[in-house]
Amino acid sequence: MTKFESQYPSFPSIRMRRNRMKKFVRRIVSENTLTINNLIQPIFVTEGKFENTYIDSMPGIKRHSLYSIVNEAKEIYNLGIPAIAIFPYIPKELRNENALESINENNIICKTIKEIKNSCPDLGIICDVALDPYTNHGHDGIVINNEINNDKTIEILCEQALIQAKAGCDIIAPSDMMDGRVKSIRLALDKKNYINTSILSYSAKYASSFYGPFREALGTKNIKNSINNKKSYQMDPANSHEALREIRLDINEGADIIMIKPAISYLDIIKIAKQSFEIPIFAYQVSGEYSMIKAASEKGWINEKNIIFESLLSIKRAGASCILTYFAKDIAKSL
Ligand code: PBG
Fold this sequence. Notes:
By secondary structure, the chain is of the alpha/beta class. About 40% of the residues lie in helices and about 15% in strands. It has an eight-stranded parallel β-barrel with strand order 1-4-5-8-9-10-11-12, surrounded by nine helices. Strands 6-7 form a two-stranded antiparallel ribbon. Strand 8, helix 6 and strand 9 form a beta-alpha-beta unit. Helix 3 crosses helix 4, helix 5 packs across helix 6 and helix 9 (about 265-275) packs parallel to helix 11 (about 305-320). The mean pLDDT is about 95. The protein binds ligand PBG. Ligand PBG binds near residues 175, 176, 215 and 230. Ligand PBG binds near residues 176 and 214.
């Protein structure tokens, strides 16, 4: 022991708590922050008898009408949230094997894009490209011989992307997990001169039970096809290297941004993606994540606002630059 050490008045000399002792110091040593720029609000829209109905498993979230979604969009824009992601509830009579409504230029999504762009042109609009809202079995693709047919599905996805781009959608977001769709959609968009329409690819989308409440929102919960889950196209939760391959492929095919989904159970994937690639990485805090927080908060078991902040901050800390979250509006109000 040196003389100095023996005379040293207190133990330990390294006190981590010094950097936590006062509010100002906590602020200046903080490594990550959540801002409004990091939030995207997903919203649901429909026409017909489910207009303005609430979703039981997603307390506080409703399926807007074409009229109410425009007001909602304005409110979201005025709160400072940069973008929304729109999802449709399609009336059952418009769903079929070939998902024809998905390529109808006058479908609810295209009408919604036009209405919102009219009244709120600077709000970014993101649209899913996938067939599940439009098929009568709820799968993301076309079923041929009891299999989700990759290449046939892509043909329709390209048309779907085109009508959405034509309606004014800023960011096309393929969430279907077919192979090669990013490249095909990029080529289709470029060919029609939508060179500035971006692609946000759901690259690492896991076959997750956290999507349950979303499927209630869209009415796709009771997939009645014999292929009764999405495991033949969405990823196995056991895998992480495979996520890197998926992401690399999508980047090479021309994706502008990539998405990891769900978020909280896949923070490790967000982190390795961030370390491995230079592309912006988004994460989707999905419906089940929302509903679990809502349910426990309603019971008074957790502090809702604190948990939302903590969960969103952890997603940012892992490496996501932006988060799709049903809490976006709530959190924007308190930021
Ligand atoms: C459909 C799609 C899903 C979600 C976004 N797009 C569900 C699914 O794949 O079954 C889930 C979003 C959520 O749970 O909030 N392609």
